Amino acid sequence: MFDAIALFVAIVEAGSLSAAAERLDLPAATVTRRLQALERELGCRLLHRSARRLQPTAEGMQYYEQCRPLVHALTQATQSLDANLRRIAGHIRVLAPVNLASGPLTPAWTGFLQAHPEVNLELQLSNTLQDLVGSGADLAIRVGAQGDSLLTQRRLGDIGVHLVASPAYLARRGTPAHASDLAGHDAIVATPLLTWPLRDPASGEETTLRPNARLRVDEMRLAVAAAEAGLGVLLCPTTLTRDAIARGSLAAVLADWTPRRRPLFAVWPQQRYLPARVRALVSHLEGFIQSDPLLAAARD
Fold first, then answer.
1. Helices 2-14 and 17-24, interaxial angle, to 10°?
2. What is the pLDDT of residues 89-107, one digit of tens each?
3. CATH pick for 2-86 out of 1.10.10.10, 1.10.3860.10, 1.10.287.470, 2.60.40.10
């Protein structure tokens, strides 16, 4: 209905059907047909039409004067909203895991804000799965398979996990040669990796261990520090141990038993149109992650 009313207003302001058709980039026959449909729906003639002139009827002039300010106001509001949606500016709220967001992704957030000075970024970090729809957030970063059919997802990359321990611990307790050897070792268990899925390099068979933790924490960086202190064997993301392995305070354990990499996703509600600022953030994160060898999607 609004399109038909806006067309009528455009016809009156253009002064003729042909001028309105040219202004709206529509065939003249389409303009005539839509005007006739509006007149039928209203039950009255809106325009006197002749070969040389067009004149609103009394009812048409009254209808035009009432509709014109509404059409112009709504058109202006729509244009303003469209401009805002295309502009990389405004507030973005993101839900993300603590260690991922505050660790390897730190340069991604800072780089994005430096590239887009009109954006305000709010990061809500938690190691528990948060309700994206109920929270009103624009975007969530999640690790692992996503089963929520109400969310649109884009795979950004993958995260590898591996077993590590300090060289001092391994010298004291021995280095495991098989997954079954882990039963005789102290375990450090950190959320969300409460179970340890390992893959037998000989058979390809996957085994899930439920270690009896000497230390159990919900903060992965604390778990890494405990492993560096020699308190036991830890399964954790490779992104959090690269520095410790480089300086020799941690060593990989059972490297051939490495579990499958876990997919990393950006997700958002299906029914929500993504403004340009959020689309820009997703693209920025994807580019940043693909440039990091420890986060880039596996090619196998």
1. 120
2. 889 999 998 888 988 899 9
3. 1.10.10.10
